[in-house]
Amino acid sequence: MKIAVAGTGYVGLSLATLLSQKNEVVALDVIPEKVEMINNRISPIKDDEIEDFFKNKKLNLKATLDYKEAFDGAKFVIISTPTNYDEVEGYFDTSSVEDIIKKVKSMNIDTTMVVKSTIPVGFINNMKEKYDIDNIFFSPEFLREGKALYDNLYPSRIIVGEKSKRAEEFANLLKDAALKEDIIIKYMDSTEAEAVKLFANTYLALRVSYFNELDTYAELNGLNTKDIIDGVCLDPRIGTHYNNPSFGYGGYCLPKDTKQLLANYKNVPQNLIEAIVKSNDTRKEHIANMIAKKNPKVVGVYRLTMKSGSDNFRASAIQSVMAKIKDKGIEIQIYEPTIKDNTFEGYKVENNLETFKNTSDVIIANRLEEELNDSIEKVYSRDLFRNN
Question: Exposure of 228 by Cβ count < 10 A (0-12 exposed, 13-18 middle, 19+ buried)?
């Protein structure tokens, strides 16, 4: 069948790649350069599996700037456009999603829209009422940046926000394209599916914050953080995963999803959700204070990306740490090979690694790499397990 995918970020491009193994997929984007790259089988994002599939798999995949070309004749229109959190409104900016909904409705075609963008609880019901439509449901994604296609090939679960034949058909599309066997598929209403997405990501943010606060306590009291974490996590109820301290949770999903969930708690009693949001700011302030105590003249920031193997530093926590360090009157320079300019957001960029290391009094690195080993005495990092 023909499937349209609107938006070619991590979610959209991984789904388009996955489904184009067995279906005709037309991907829609508004950036001509991305469309050209996809049509030339060059991945516009860093993802090993997508790059491998583009190089070695026969994919029935085309990208276009024309929404009518993309949507016409499509059995499903998957919406995976960005939804940034609006701090002023206290709500996701869902305008890009609504734009696709309006375009589909204007074409008067027989299709089903599946929203994969992260949205507030109640959004799908609001859209049904606002646009007088019923051909739409939500299906959350649970992907990691840089591992998006892998997580579609080996999904932890498939959740579809509708109990219907078309929902089953969509779930089976994902299942049949995956490599994992015995995939759990769960059907529920879209409102519950919307809540699943936000609560899942907020729990991950909670876990990051918990081990970061454990690390803060240990660091300030001269204790061995790794020994404590190892001892705590050997309890099988806790587990030895997602426990590596960092400069805070960042990236495209966790900061905005936690804030959206907190906004959804209006008129609902809570303490924990708000604490998760505040904890992240507290952690970044602590990191900045620990750097300032070293009295450096120049702080070198090793990579703006928060994870090894990633090229995305949108909303990375280290940028907030940088701002707090700058506010203390300390000069900052950045080593980030993905930036080709000499400056970034007013900061100096030095992409000669040896010059960067030699001219930095302190080097901060959220995740350690071997190329820092010869300057490790200058490096400040909370990366204890050498994993993401």
Answer: middle
Tell whether 182 and 265 lie within a shared domain.
Answer: no
Residue type, 323: A
| Distances in whole angstroms, Cα of residue 287 to Cα of each of 12, 277, 282, 348 | 35, 16, 9, 21
Q: Which residues make Cβ contacts (< 8 Å) with residue 105, sequence separation at least 6? A: 131, 133
User: Is 79:138 a contact under the CB 8 Å cutoff?
Assistant: no
Are 6 and 112 found together in one domain? yes
Amino acid letter for position 140: P
The residue to which tokens 């729990």 are assigned? 203
Contact 97, 113 (CB under 8 A): no
What is the length of the chain? 388
Q: Which residue, 213, 284, 196, 211, is CA-closest to 241?
A: 211
| Active-site residue, selected from the candidate residues 253, 262, 263, 362 | 253
**C-alpha to C-alpha distance for 46 and 137, rounded to whole angstroms:** 29
**pLDDT level of residue 310 (50, 70, 90 thresholds):** low
**182 and 202 housed in the same domain:** no
The verdict on whether 233 is a catalytic residue reads no
CA max distance for the chain: 66
Residue 344 phi, psi dihedral angles, 5° rounding: -145, 120
Which residues contact residue 14 at a Cβ distance below 8 angstroms, ignoring those fewer than 6 apart?
Answer: 47, 49, 50, 143, 148, 149, 151, 152
| C-alpha dist (Å) from residue 20 to 50, 169, 258, 277 | 12, 16, 33, 38
Q: Does residue 154 sit in the same domain as residue 102?
A: yes
Residue 47: φ, ψ to 5°: -160, 110
| pTM exceeds 0.85, yes or no | yes
Task: Give the model confidence (pLDDT) of 273-291 as tens digits.
Answer: 999 999 999 999 999 999 9
Tens of pLDDT along 180-231? 999 999 999 999 999 999 999 999 999 999 999 999 999 999 999 999 999 9
Q: In what order do the strands lie in the sheet with 362-364?
A: 343-344, 347-349, 331-335, 298-302, 362-364, 379-380
Q: Find, among 103, 102, 107, 108, the residue nearest to 127 by Cα.
A: 102
| CA-based nearest residue to 216, from 278, 287, 167 | 287
> What CATH number is attached to the domain comprising 333?
3.40.50.720
